[in-house]
Design goal:
It is a single chain. Helix content is 36%, strand content 23%. It is of the alpha+beta class. The chain has 4 domains: 48 residues; 127 residues, Glutaredoxin; 256 residues, Rossmann fold (3-Layer(aba) Sandwich), CATH 3.40.50.880; 35 residues.
């Protein structure tokens, strides 16, 4: 009996050992499978870019234009980043890595100028030396030094203190790439001699970034000429053209010339400008647009946020939900039965609740019987088909102050976009650089309603549910033991 009991006890112990061994084997295999799966998942995730730019104006996302430039690269571009080791700028680095990941031809090279003084000597040009924080874009024997100070645009607040208005990192780097790979530079002619407003330093800088050189031209001077492939910019003239000047501009346009007219209201009428516009099917009305629809105005009824029509000039703004701000705009009438060769397209239009104030001496903006009913054009484009392969182009805006830096900054630089897109359209630059400064005030995470709901659901519902399920599972297992 005792021997039988010992035998049963031995068999039971043997069975328990087999069961424990089996459980241990399963646990070991499960652990190995889990570790292998974890390694595989980490390798896969490491290859996938899960980052997402949630800033309102896509601060860390390269524009379509930059991607187009990068896609067209055939040879390597070296981008030297001069920072002290460990003191790199996060925003600059993040964007530069976007360039590198978007093109195999972009080579990022980080150099500490304190440890590599020879790089300063190599890229010194006209006694201008690269400094810490500079970026150097190099292609073959050509290079362009981008100073750290040019990566931001400085403005002033109401107290006169300096503030960072916008970031210009992408536009400078992409401009540098275009500059070193381009074989030529376009030019624009800026008319003088009629009290025109000088182009601001902001506009001049942007023209340079987009590979334009600006030349002043005074048509009253002897031997003054307009260049055939150089768009003419006329910015807020205070006096009318002379008849010889009018003839010169008409002949220039008749041969396929391009021009951008920014026309502020003046005390005197301008019959020669008017005769020029008439040939292109439009008329500047000496009347100021007043807007009563709150959706198309800001601050006061004269500060227009006009409707932006579908056009090559405005599509980039519409796609990015940027709106131009046009203060105190003259209205532009499209004449009936223009020449068949003309194609006239409204660009900026007021609402049907607007009117044009014809009595410019009136103390009120209230509508009267003599005023012109809306909708009203405040900017138009005109194309004149000369032959199968030649056309003239003009853009006319019933205001010039909209490119004033203070006004432009209120529009989150939409005004700068509109101006430069107009210049590029006039120049017929199909590879035009449509990258503009990105307003610094938008340097924040912006979530749409779906994204807010998703993140709220994860934080408030999903994570607590996971914790609760894990807790209940552990509690049930312990009760069964």
């Amino acid at each position: 009996m005792k021997r039988l009991f010992n035998k049963k006890l031995f068999n039971k112990s043997k069975a328990n050992d087999g069961r424990n061994l089996k459980q241990a084997s399963i646990a070991t295999i499960s652990t190995i499978i889990f570790l292998v799966a974890l390694i595989v998942i980490n390798l896969i995730v490491g290859k996938i870019d899960l980052s997402k730019d949630l800033t309102k104006n896509k601060m860390f996302t390269l524009s379509d234009q930059t991607n187009k430039v990068l896609d067209n690269l055939k040879e390597d571009i070296n981008i030297y980043v001069l920072y002290e080791t460990g003191k790199e700028n996060y925003t600059v680095n993040t964007l530069l890595k976007e360039y590198q990941s978007s093109s195999k031809h972009i080579k990022l090279i980080y150099k500490d100028p304190n440890k590599n003084p020879q790089i300063i000597e190599k890229y010194t040009k006209d006694d201008v030396k690269p400094e810490v924080g500079s970026i150097i874009v190099e292609y073959g024997a050509k290079f362009k030094v981008i100073e750290q100070s040019s990566l931001v645009n400085i403005g002033y607040d109401t107290s006169g203190s300096t503030t960072i208005d916008s970031l210009a990192i992408e536009q400078n780097i992409t401009s540098g790439i275009i500059s070193v790979t381009s074989s030529s530079t376009a030019t624009v002619s800026v008319l003088e001699g009629h009290g025109e407003t000088s182009l601001s330093s902001e506009i001049s800088k942007q023209l340079q970034l987009e590979n334009f050189s600006a030349d002043s031209v005074n048509l009253s001077m002897k031997d003054a000429k307009l260049k055939e492939n150089s768009p003419l910019i006329i910015n807020s003239p205070k006096r009318d053209l002379s008849e010889p000047e009018t003839k010169t501009i008409k002949e220039f346009l008749a041969k396929g010339g391009k021009a951008l007219f920014l026309m502020d209201l003046t005390e005197d009428t301008m019959p020669n400008f008017n005769s020029l516009f008439k040939e292109y099917g439009i008329q500047i009305q000496r009347a100021i647009a007043v807007e009563s629809n709150s959706m198309f105005v800001t601050q006061n009824p004269l500060y227009l946020l006009p409707q932006q029509k579908s056009h090559e000039i405005l599509n980039p703004l519409n796609n990015n939900k940027l709106r131009t701000l046009i203060p105190g705009a003259q209205t532009i009438k499209i004449l009936e039965k223009p020449k068949s060769s003309l194609s006239i397209e409204p660009l900026l239009v007021t609402s049907d609740k607007s009117w044009a104030k014809t009595d410019l001496r009136s103390d009120t903006v209230e509508k009267t019987s003599s005023d012109i009913n809306g909708p009203l054009n405040v900017a138009v484009s005109v194309t004149n088909k000369i032959s199968s392969d030649k056309e003239s182009r003009i853009v006319v805006v019933g205001n010039g102050s909209f490119i004033n830096p203070q006004i432009s900054s209120l529009s989150s630089n939409a005004n700068l976009n509109f101006f430069m897109n107009s210049v590029n359209w006039c120049a017929d630059k199909k590879d035009s650089l449509s990258i503009r400064p990105k307003s610094f005030e938008d340097y924040s995470i912006q979530l749409n309603a779906f994204q807010k709901l998703t993140f709220t659901g994860i934080a408030v519902i999903l994570i607590p549910v996971i914790v609760l399920v894990c807790g209940i599972t552990v509690w049930i297992k312990r009760r069964k033991k």
